[in-house]
Design brief:
The protein is of the alpha+beta class. The protein is built from 16 helices and 32 strands. A hairpin with a 5-residue loop joins strand 16 and strand 17. Bound molecules: guanosine-5'-triphosphate, sulfopyruvate and manganese (II) ion (MN). The site of manganese (II) ion has 3 residues, from loops. Pfam families: PEPCK_GTP, PEPCK_N.
Length: about 625
């Protein structure tokens, strides 16, 4: 399609300005068709950037630059007019200055390249909860990924009409080409200090420069659906969250919907596609990364998955850990930074079977196949943040109503993270505000999903939104408190904190996780159903003795006790850290309800003495 086909006045004017600034050789308006995808993918293959996989129909492997393997939080900016509005957890920069710097970088940055204009919808096209965006990019890889991750094309332009709302998303890999120059098979991107992932919340505008990877470049995802959408949600009274959405059916055929916020690479995709080990239970997928939730007329919260695909962590994905993901990526999938086998398939650490012969690692180097399904740190065949991009409709357990424009009614929220100690397998908040407190104290070991020197260390990641909240986190906590006042308590989702990641003294996980997490989901389901299966403890509601079904589970009674009891000393340290290091960051913006919840917790913990509160 040609730019003249664009009938939206504001969009056209914006794009014309971008053309003047970026000076591409060509401009192309995307229609979202299969033909378009195939043509652009062929261009990437011809340029030596993508490798077709003989073993997987219509699937391709890409290798990025070592400086461009994950989100870069240090180069992610919230450029609100006032610094205070970005808050203590974001990198703030003055919007005018940032625009000046970036305009310098953007000037002429698309020389030698085609500029693609991608009209896309986050959420089913036309849904009341969905929103439109237009991403302008000079990367064919980004266009192909956006085709899978969002709904792209003419149908979105029809909904936008001549003056409908949209979020402008500008992206460039930041690597102009001189006449006759090509990428020579090298993933194009800019140096780290020239990468900018910028958000202008008041203007609802995104400018990204210098990275082609994941959340830095597929701007519908974290930039729009979380950072900008969190601001819209605050202003409009809804929730935009880093949450999976699952549908769970019990043996009697009753259905509930659960969302869960876990930090990056902490198990959302796995939980969303879980195959229950408990007989008679069924889990189906609605979304694996982001949930947008609005109140329905009945006063309940309804969630949609704004995305259309999965951008999932590849390493560790196997028939054992996530069979449904393995099925979802059999065809029509883009792989990034995975290993390549001699017979033309992908391989990664934790894929569940050893590789044979020689492999090509994510750097493009030939390597002998590792003897085990593991490699030493830093020597992996697949980068620890290697990812697959696959259409959600290919998931064998995608719920039949996953695209319902009304969304699905939510019964429970889960919070969780990688916590080797203290936090039990599951506990439930006493009420809404206590639940908001639990969300606010989420902590987790940092994973490879972000380029950071903190990988492996525990950091607080409130609501798993630390890198994704587009405004002051203290105001975000307040927004959650306010949401709880908008409807009656019985209509609000119940709130749980789960932890699959407790470790023993030998650094091994105590809880087997994956499909076995269905045992915890079943308890949560029954809890939402009003079953008398919980006891009151100093930290909230916990499973009654025997209320978590352990039939056939390879965990000793002592270990179950350990992960299902209140670690009084551990919680004392936790409370001290929250009070001294975590909460003071938010200053006056910290809602009093959260300080009250912390005080109550402290009183209850102190009253319980130094016993271990074993049930
Ligand atoms: P993003 O896409 O980065 O937002 O992450 P995600 O939350 O969807 O992460 P994902 O489900 O892909 O989790 C990836 C990592 O978590 C892999 O290393 C998995 O092996 C591990 N994981 C997932 N579920 C479990 C579990 O129940 N127990 C344990 N021990 N590890 C798990
Ligand atoms: C995450 O890091 O939480 C992701 C991957 O889901 S990315 O899209 O790169 O942000
Ligand atoms: Mn994510």
């Amino acid at each position: 399609m040609k730019l003249d086909d664009l009938k939206h006045t504001k969009a056209k004017a914006w794009i014309e300005d971008v053309i003047k600034m970026c000076q591409p050789d060509d401009v192309y308006l995307c229609d979202g068709s299969q033909e378009e995808y195939d043509r652009l993918m062929q261009k990437l293959v011809d340029a030596g950037l993508g490798t077709p996989l003989k073993k997987r129909k219509h699937s391709f492997l890409f290798r990025s630059q070592p400086s461009d393997v994950a989100r870069v939080e240090a180069r992610t900016f919230i450029a609100s007019k006032k610094e205070e509005d970005a808050g203590p957890t974001n990198h703030w920069t003055d919007p005018a200055e940032l625009k000046k710097t970036m305009t310098g970088l953007y000037t002429g940055c698309m020389k030698g390249r085609t500029m693609y204009v991608i009209p896309f919808s986050m959420g089913p096209v036309g849904s009341d909860i969905a929103k439109n965006g237009i991403e302008v990019t000079d990367s064919e890889y980004v266009v192909c990924n956006m085709h899978i991750m969002t709904r792209v094309g003419t149908k979105v332009l029809d909904v936008m009409g001549t003056d409908g709302e949209f979020v402008p998303c500008l992206h460039s890999v930041g690597k102009p080409l001189a006449p006759g120059q090509t990428d020579e098979g090298q993933w194009p991107c800019a140096d780290m200090e020239h990468k900018y992932i910028s958000h202008f919340p008041e203007e609802r505008l995104i400018w990204s420069y210098g990275s082609g990877y994941g959340g830095n470049a597929l701007l519908g995802k974290k930039c729009f659906a979380l950072r900008i959408a969190s601001v819209l949600a605050r202003d409009e009274g809804w929730l935009s969250e880093h949450m999976l959405i699952l549908k769970i059916t019990n043996p009697e055929g009753r259905v509930k919907y659960i969302t869960g916020a876990f930090p990056s690479a902490c198990g959302k995709t796995n939980l969303a596609m879980l195959i229950p080990t408990l007989p008679g239970w069924k889990v189906e997928t609605v979304g694996d990364d982001i949930a947008w939730m609005k109140f329905g007329k009945d006063g309940r919260l309804y969630a949609i998955n704004p995305e259309a695909g999965f951008f999932g962590v590849a390493p560790g994905t196997s028939d054992f850990s996530n069979k449904n993901a393995m099925e979802s990526i059999k065809e029509n999938t883009i792989f990034t930074n995975c290993g390549l086998t001699e017979d033309g398939d992908i391989w990664w650490e934790g894929i569940g079977y050893p590789a044979k012969g020689e492999l090509i690692d994510w750097h493009g180097k030939k390597r002998p196949a590792p003897e085990k399904d593991k490699s030493p740190k830093g020597e992996e065949i697949a980068h620890p943040n290697a990812r697959f991009t696959a259409p959600a409709r290919q998931c064998p357990v995608i719920a039949d109503n996953w695209e319902d424009p009304q969304g699905v009614p939510i019964d429970a929220f889960l919070f969780g993270g990688r916590r080797p100690s203290t936090i039990p397998l599951v506990h439930q908040s006493r009420d809404w505000n206590h639940g908001v407190f639990l969300g606010s104290i989420v902590g987790s070991e940092v994973t490879a999903a972000v380029i950071s020197d903190q990988v492996g260390q525990v950091r607080r990641d409130p609501f798993a939104m630390l890198p994704f909240c587009g405004y002051h986190m203290g105001d975000y906590f307040k927004h959650w408190i306010e949401i709880g006042k908008k409807t009656s308590a019985d209509k609000l989702p119940k709130i749980f904190y789960v932890n699959w990641f407790r470790k023993d003294e030998n650094d091994n996980f105590i809880w087997p996780g994956y499909g076995e997490n269905s045992r915890v989901l079943a308890w949560i389901f029954d809890r939402c159903d009003g079953k008398d299966n919980a006891v009151d403890t100093p930290i909230g509601w916990m499973p009654k003795e025997g209320a978590i079904n352990t039939d056939g589970l390879d965990v000793s009674k002592e270990q179950m006790k350990e992960i299902l009891s209140v670690d009084v000393e551990g919680w004392k340290k936790e409370i001290k850290d929250i009070r001294e290091n975590h909460y003071p960051k938010f200053g006056k913006k910290l809602p009093k309800e959260l300080t009250e919840a912390l005080d109550t917790l402290e009183k209850r913990i102190n009253a319980s003495g130094s016993c271990c509160c074993k049930q």
